[in-house]
Every structure is written in structure tokens, then in C-alpha cells.
Amino acid sequence: MAAYEITAVRQRGSEGSTHLIDAVKVGNSLFLTDQIVDWIAAGTHRFWIWFQDKEVDVVVRQQVSSRRYYLTTEGGGFPPIALLSLPRF
What does the DSSP assignment read for the chain? Predict the structure, then answer.
């Protein structure tokens, strides 16, 4: 399994209090969130971000009401919205 740093996000807007990230930047490549979700769920690749000088894992969660899968962060004692701290593209 290879590990990749997500360096930026593209946000589609917000749906209530849920922010919708529809794509991420890894190196010089852009990937739709659905592709990243599939890779994480399959254990193909691991993704992470730098947040407050620490490496934080990006994980997949499922929204309870819509059953939609989304990306969030886990670990380091940081809030799950740390992914939204990344630059926008």
C-alpha cells in the first residue's frame, strides 16, 4: 500500500453543516473524492494531510442520513474537519 499526501481540496459548497469536498489534489494530480474513497476502502492506498505540524490520516466515513461516503481525518486528537484547513483549488 502506497501513502500519499493530500495537499488541497475542491469544495462543492455546503449542505447544512456538511461541507462537500468533491476532489482532492495529490502532488500535481487531481482526483475525484469517489476515487479516493474507493482506494481507501479497498486498502489500495493510504492518504494523509499535514495539520498543525503532524501527519493526520484521511479516512472514509458514511453520512448517516444520506448514506453518502465522505473523506475526513482521524488521529492526533484533531477535529475531523481538519481536511478543510487545506488550500482550495
Answer: -EEEEEEEEEEEEEETTEEEEEEEEETTEEEEHHHHHHHHHHTSEEEEEEETTEEEEEEEEE-TTT--EEEEEESTT--GGGGGGSPB-
The residue extents of the domains of the chain are 2-85
pLDDT in tens, 13-59: 655 545 689 999 999 999 999 999 999 999 999 999 999 999 999 99
Give CA separation, 7 vs 39, 62, 65, in Å.
Answer: 17, 23, 29
Q: What is the pLDDT of residues 17-26, one digit of tens each?
A: 456 899 999 9
Closest CA to 56 of 78, 39, 37: 78
| In contact, 41 and 32? CB cutoff 8 Å | no
- Residues 17, 2: Cα–Cα separation, whole Å: 32
